[in-house]
Design goal:
By secondary structure, chain A is α+β, with helices and mostly antiparallel strands. Chain A is built from 4 helices and 9 strands; from the N terminus they run E-H-H-H-E-H-E-E-E-E-E-E-E. In chain A, the strands form 2 sheets. In chain A, strands 1, 3, 5, 6, 7 and 8 form a 6-stranded mixed sheet that branches. In chain A, strands 2-9 form a two-stranded antiparallel ribbon. Chain B has a 5-stranded antiparallel sheet with strand order 1-2-3-4-5, with helices on one face. Chain B has helices at residues 17-31, 154-159, 166-180, 188-210, 228-235, and strands spanning 13-14, 42-53, 56-66, 84-94, 97-107, 217-218, 249-250. Chain B is an alpha+beta fold. The chains are: A alpha+beta (214), B alpha+beta (257). At the A-B interface, helix 3, strand 2, helix 4, strand 4 and strand 5 of A face helix 4, strand 6, helix 5 and strand 7 of B. Strand 4 (142-144) of chain A pairs antiparallel with strand 6 of chain B.
Chain lengths: 214, 257
């Protein structure tokens, strides 16, 4: 992979959103990925609806949590995603009001990505932002900088938060992943979290996936 | 926040007492490390939950510990009237190796009623003392129990006395937090409780800071007045610990395209 990459600088990433008091990170992670895939294939950056997934993905549990793999499947089954403007985020479960005629993007498939961080970086640079899930240890108090908790404290099998990898690089020789979070811009570095890259920190490499747009 | 339904599998579930004894004993052992015989705390009651995933189990325990009477006032850590402690422990059991991830103990002011013994895993009806909990810590595992040890610096963190003006400083930081994040609390009691949570969290953040090997800075955030349990319940996603839902095909790596 190239030594550094940042999809924010290439216009593939929408502004940081805020999931509010709702465990809907899975929906934000997936819409962020689809926004990037759609941008790369169709050339338009659209902010997409998480609320549609909360309300209409019946396999997942809305604010109680969900899985990206199920969300991709729901998007395919429903027939696409509406935009944020058409189906706005409320942060709590509502009756599904998806309107297929308002769907602006579709996906054809979804794929699971390698657990090798070098391969993930290569995939990201060529294919776009990646949906991942991590152990959120320490994130409650994270302010800035590259987070690298000791492995026993941030076990890769205690994964509890879905986010979006949008880039990678090095800061003073420390390799990092640039991670778009969904806790608003008043958290972290303008809403972004920076995590050490190369040691599988906090399980960042365990659940990487992406939608496929043909 | 609504309580999440507890199911079998990796989600948390209440445990019967025999399953709790091994992690509880380990937590007690860690708590008593370095203490001479006769000065060790004893386990009076324990209850808890477990979350299982992959090769490990994470036990969240609430334990009542009893400190032996302290006869030398120059070395007593607690006033005589506060010999009972209510502790929260998180014990990780990975492939049979235990590790203490979190310890949070505070003295109990009132008498314990209805508490059973460790054998019957009775549930203690206790009123925890509201205030700062300087013992709140991420504890080092025994070098025997893990390949990575934090023992070189954590004991210092755990034993460093808090500065005398800790409460005053903390109140000032909390006031700033309330203003910055526009917090309102319904009652004075809630405000006091939130401030104690905030103070505990500042100690936790400091310890997370000490254990971070990167360049990250931890401190006050908009989540600083939430307990760990509240934060997990409201903002995190326990379903991710379960088996992945739908199986997806593996992507070709870009080098082989």
């Amino acid at each position: 992979p190239p030594p550094e990459w940042d999809w924010r600088k290439k216009g593939a990433v929408t502004k940081v959103k805020d999931q509010g008091m709702c465990g809907s990170c899975w929906a934000f992670s997936v819409t962020g990925n689809v926004e990037g895939q759609w941008f790369l294939k169709q050339g338009t950056l659209l902010s997409l609806s998480e609320q549609e997934l909360l309300d209409c993905d019946k396999v997942d549990k809305g604010c109680m949590g969900g899985l990206p793999s199920n969300a991709y499947s729901a998007i395919k089954t429903l027939g696409g995603l509406e935009t944020e403007d058409d189906y706005s985020y409320r942060g709590h479960l509502q009756t599904c009001s998806f309107n297929a005629e308002k769907a602006k993007v579709y996906i054809n498939d979804s794929v699971e990505l390698s657990q090798n961080e070098q391969k993930l970086a290569a995939w990201l640079a060529e294919k776009g932002p990646i949906s991942v899930a991590i152990n959120a240890f320490g994130m409650q108090f994270y302010r800035h900088g590259i987070s690298h908790p000791l492995r026993p404290l941030c076990s890769p099998w205690l994964i509890d938060h879905a986010v979006l990898l949008v880039g990678y690089g090095n800061r003073s020789a420390t390799p990092f992943w640039a991670i778009k979070n969904s806790w608003g811009t008043d958290w972290g570095e303008e809403g972004y979290y920076y995590l050490y890259r190369g040691s599988g920190a906090c399980g960042v490499n365990i659940m990487a996936s992406s939608a496929v747009v043909n | 926040a609504p309580k999440k339904p507890r199911a079998a599998g990796p989600q948390a579930r209440e445990l019967a007492s025999p399953e709790l004894l091994a992690p509880a004993r380990f937590a007690l052992e860690m708590y008593n490390r370095g203490r001479a015989a006769g000065t060790r705390a004893a386990l009076r009651a324990v209850r808890g939950r477990v979350r299982r995933a992959g090769r490990g189990s994470l036990y969240s325990l609430k334990a009542t510990l009893v400190e032996p009477p302290c006869n030398d006032p120059t070395v007593c850590q607690l006033p005589i009237s506060k010999k009972t402690l209510l502790c929260s422990f998180e014990v990780l059991d990975e492939l049979g190796k235990h590790m203490l991830l979190r310890r949070d103990c505070g003295p109990v002011d009132t008498k314990v009623t209805g508490a059973g013994t460790a054998q019957d895993a009775g549930r203690a009806q206790v009123t925890p003392h509201v205030g700062f909990s300087p013992n709140s810590s991420l504890l080092e595992p025994s070098p025997d129990d893990t390949n990575e040890t934090f023992s070189s610096f954590l004991p210092l963190l755990n034993k460093d006395p808090l500065p005398q003006d800790f409460s005053v400083k903390m109140a000032s930081i909390f006031k700033e937090f309330v203003t910055t994040y526009n917090r309102t609390y319904d009652t004075k009691e809630e405000a006091r409780w939130r401030m104690s949570v905030f103070a505990n969290n500042m100690v936790r953040a400091q310890k997370i800071q000490a254990l971070d090997t990167g360049t990250a800075r931890y401190g006050v955030t908009k989540f600083s007045d939430l307990t760990e349990e509240e934060f997990r319940t409201i903002y995190l996603n326990p379903l991710l610990q379960e088996e992945p839902g739908r199986k997806m095909r593996l992507a070709k790596s870009v080098s082989s395209l």
